[in-house]
Amino acid sequence: MLVWGIFPAIIENYINLNKRMFPMKEEVIQFIGVKDLSDEEQATVNMLSTEYYGKIKRSLKNLTSLAVQVKTYQKEGAKKKYSVNVRVIAPTHIIEADKASDWDLARTMHKAFKNIEHEIEHKLKVSSQKPRGYE
Hints:
The protein has helices at residues 7-21, 39-60, 105-124, and strands spanning 28-32, 65-73, 81-89, 94-102. The chain is α+β, with helices and mostly antiparallel strands. The model has no long low-confidence stretch (mean pLDDT 79).
């Protein structure tokens, strides 16, 4: 006979035991300088970063963390100029891309992430166009 008052406690103990035995790896994306942006711009940065995070994770296979730094420059006038630096940290490599700056935030983010994908392909010789027979 099962006592229903004890049943939730059993389930909670089982879940806590599984968390300790099989710790889940957290996917870490660190945003730097995003507090200065508007809510719409923050949503754009978050959406594009999570989209490219999956692509980068597939190409590296052991990604530890991703850091996205957004700087805004507004000298004169109403338009802002954005600069985006991206840093990927893997157990064996730290790869940085910091050449992206433009007047449009989404375009700047795409430039930075395309640059980091190119750097990963260059440093680790990972190419989707040339499959190797021995893998």
